């Protein structure tokens, strides 16, 4: 039987990643305990010290939440939040987020503060609302999924993080390096319910985060708000053109680029053309997984019940205003 809707006094089952991007990783547990103690609310902590532990720890937290009628909380970056959401989806449990990563796109698009104490107040006092989940071959993505050059840049970024630390500047420098090294285009067939086509592209990017779409200047943010996903393909271009596109994205002007093809959908099937590799690396919210073709990208049948502030997030309002001003 599915759990009842989360009560205001429901216990919090907190999965926290001690290897996420923030330097205050050891502060999460004590802060959660202190905040819950102040309002007389029970909590249990489920620490993750190595990435490989996350699926099992998240499963344990979800099972405990089902047993006690609790809320499963993910504390970490977008990758950690993704891993916990994978376990929560379909369980009936409410879901909370304490963002501790570098980009925190999922939290920011839903108005959840990046400061720990402020995020705890949201978690303790706001209601759960349904939010859209994307899936590729059954694997959850809350922010984006991709193959090709974008996925390769994420793989390269991990090496840079280990050498130079986690920051947006390191991520940008790593992306530039990936482009300058060169790339091979993918030869794909793409199928929507009403049409199909062949494409040659360096990367396929599927977005499920309206804020990210708004910040790079693509119009599919509205499609995500209305229950669809955003597909983005690049036409075959050289390295310097790719760098120019990277700069356009940084200034929120990708919609003006002729080299960018973008479309909205609820389900998309992608396969390799004859002779192509049958397995491919797919990035979901920054985590890489090898998947067997074809790939099916779709909106999940059931949403997550996310505890978040009501209304449009302030950062979303600012991004929309900037887009309208530049139109």
UniProtKB/TrEMBL annotation:
MF terms from GO for this chain are:
kinase activity
Q: Where is the DAGKc domain?
A: 7-140
Q: Where are the transmembrane segments?
A: none
Q: What is this protein called?
A: Diacylglycerol kinase
| Keywords linked to the UniProt accession | Kinase, Transferase
InterPro entries listed in its UniProt record: ATP-NAD_kinase_N, Diacylglycerol_kinase_cat_dom, Lipid_Phosphate_FormReg, NAD/diacylglycerol_kinase_sf
């Amino acid at each position: 039987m599915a759990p009842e809707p989360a009560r205001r006094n429901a216990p919090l089952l907190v999965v926290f990643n001690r290897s996420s991007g923030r330097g205050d990783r050891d502060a999460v547990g004590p802060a959660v305990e202190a905040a819950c103690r102040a309002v007389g609310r029970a909590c249990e902590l489920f620490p993750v010290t190595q990435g490989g532990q996350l699926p099992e720890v998240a499963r344990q937290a979800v099972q405990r939440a089902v047993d006690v009628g609790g809320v499963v909380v993910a504390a970490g970056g977008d990758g950690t939040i993704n891993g916990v959401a994978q376990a929560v989806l379909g369980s009936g449990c409410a879901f909370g987020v304490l963002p501790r990563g570098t980009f925190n796109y999922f939290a920011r698009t839903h108005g959840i503060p990046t400061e720990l104490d402020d995020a705890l107040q949201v978690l303790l006092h706001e209601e759960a609302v349904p939010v859209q989940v994307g899936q590729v071959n059954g694997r959850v993505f809350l922010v984006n999924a991709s193959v090709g050059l974008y996925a390769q840049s994420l793989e390269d970024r991990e090496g840079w993080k280990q050498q130079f630390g986690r920051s947006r500047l390191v991520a940008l420098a790593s992306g530039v390096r990936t482009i300058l090294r060169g790339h091979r285009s993918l030869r794909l067939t793409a199928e929507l319910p009403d049409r199909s086509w062949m494409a040659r592209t360096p990367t396929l990017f599927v977005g499920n985060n309206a804020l990210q779409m708004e910040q790079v200047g693509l119009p599919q943010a509205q499609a995500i708000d209305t229950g669809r996903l955003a597909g983005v393909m690049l036409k075959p271009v050289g390295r310097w053109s790719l760098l120019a596109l990277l700069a356009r994205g940084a200034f929120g002007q990708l919609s003006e680029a002729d080299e960018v093809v973008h479309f909205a959908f609820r389900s998309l099937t992608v396969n390799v053309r004859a002779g192509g590799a049958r397995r491919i690396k797919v990035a979901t919210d920054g985590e890489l997984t090898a998947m067997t073709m074809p790939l099916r990208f779709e909106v999940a049948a059931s949403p997550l019940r996310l505890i978040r502030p009501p209304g449009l997030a302030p950062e979303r309002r600012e991004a929309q205003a900037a887009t309208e001003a530049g139109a």
